[in-house]
Structure of NAD(P)-dependent dehydrogenase (Short-subunit alcohol dehydrogenase family):
Amino acid sequence: MNIRRLEGKVAVITGAGGGLGAECARVLALHGAAIAVADIDMAGAESVAAAIVEQGGQALALCADVSSEEAVAAMVAATVERFGRIDVLYNNAAILNSAQRAADRDICNMDVNAWDRAMAVNLRGAMLCSKHVIPVMLRQGNGSVLFATSGFGAQGDLTLSAYAASKAGVAMLSKSIAAQYGKQGIRSNAIQIGLVENAGHPLPPEIKTILLDNHLTPALGTPRQLADIVVFFASDESSFITGHTLAADGGFSSHTPSMAAMRGFFEKVGSNTL
Ligand SMILES: NC(=O)c1ccc[n+]([C@@H]2O[C@H](COP(=O)([O-])OP(=O)(O)OC[C@H]3O[C@@H](n4cnc5c(N)ncnc54)[C@H](O)[C@@H]3O)[C@@H](O)[C@H]2O)c1
């Protein structure tokens, strides 16, 4: 994309101090948006914001724990004070560090604190950010709210049960917002993300192979591919889309559960005749 699609817009991106959120911040800024780079990790947020400013963009680093209503209210107030408006909210922050992943397992082995943390950050955090940003958008008469969700939030799997439930909740939260504020110019959508390689969370090669076998694309996703989709939802080009969950997952959720095993079988027998 070479055209600057977000000139004059202001975007709040949570969890933008690292991972996919950082790339989204960088790419939205390339399209002309001013970015509030919010994260619980202030050093990460500052470094992402500094890189944007160095490239000639506008960015404000904000330290905010999205699970705290006080912190979220302060984040929104600081953004409005600096940039005067908020056009885009990307609810990207999630608790995904290795301690959380190790504790968030199948239900019988669930660490209840991990369950509470997933709900507090991933779901309550997204609700709080929406609660405080939407009034700003209502005053303007427009805005685009966006949520990061996952295949885990749509289909059953063997582990990460708290993450999965929180992401299912996020997809519903998006639809509630679309229904409640659509007539006042607010759109709300979710992106169901497939496996996007994140240097912060390297996966064991065996797991990458299993996941790649179940994506229909030649490769797993890149942060830039995801950021380009966020740009689309942030821009007026998506103005007739609301209440939608878009699977940006290389086809991961679009095929039969047996497909990858069948591919191996057909290769072994040398034919796809059933
Ligand atoms: N990477 C993938 O393949 C993938 C797949 C599906 C969905 N997603 C979703 O995309 C989003 C980004 O994922 P990622 O891979 O970049 O993860 P990440 O762990 O690299 O980034 C998450 C960011 O959120 C921040 N954060 C954590 N707790 C916070 C809190 N309480 N308040 C504010 N910020 C907080 C972290 O500091 C971090 O910068 C998440 O919502 C995730 O569920 C990612």
Remarks:
- Residues 14-15, 17-21, 39-41, 44, 64-67, 92-96, 121, 125, 148, 150, 193, 195-196, 198, 200-201 surround nicotinamide-adenine-dinucleotide (CB under 6 Å).
- The CA atoms of residues 31 and 39 lie 21 Å apart.
- The two ends are 43 Å apart (CA to CA).
